[in-house]
Amino acid sequence: MSCQGIVKRISLPVMALFVTVGLLTLPGCSQQGPLSIDSAQVLVNVDRGSGNFNRVLEICLNEPLKVRKSIYHTMSIETFDGYQLAGGSWLRHQASDPSNPCQLRNFYVYLGRDDPPGSRQFIDDYIRPGNIKRLELRLYLDDPAEPGVFPISQRVFENI
Known about the structure:
This protein is α+β, with helices and mostly antiparallel strands.
């Protein structure tokens, strides 16, 4: 057997080993970002009586959003009374408090034109601390209506 034959026999398994190790160390295809959801809670009467912000969702992230970086979020909530609400909107950098990792979202922004009249009253009646059976939050880098957009973070809270 010639030297070239021995080199070919040794180099093919070694090459296969390098390719296999290389493929195993590549990151996955899903989008993984450093941003994650730390906590969420329902706040009441944040506005001190005007009625516009009497039910607010506080979403706390692991770090404040950066300037010129927006994150889309979706929210799905179910109360112990059976009321359900879902929607989404953009979370943006807070110029007034740039170091705060928490964002406040009025529950009324999750209402759409297809929701029945009187939905604001349902929010006032059923969405309150202690009555939340399940709250699911997801964060996206882009609008999830676009094909191929996957959440970078998601979290489910129960009994809040």
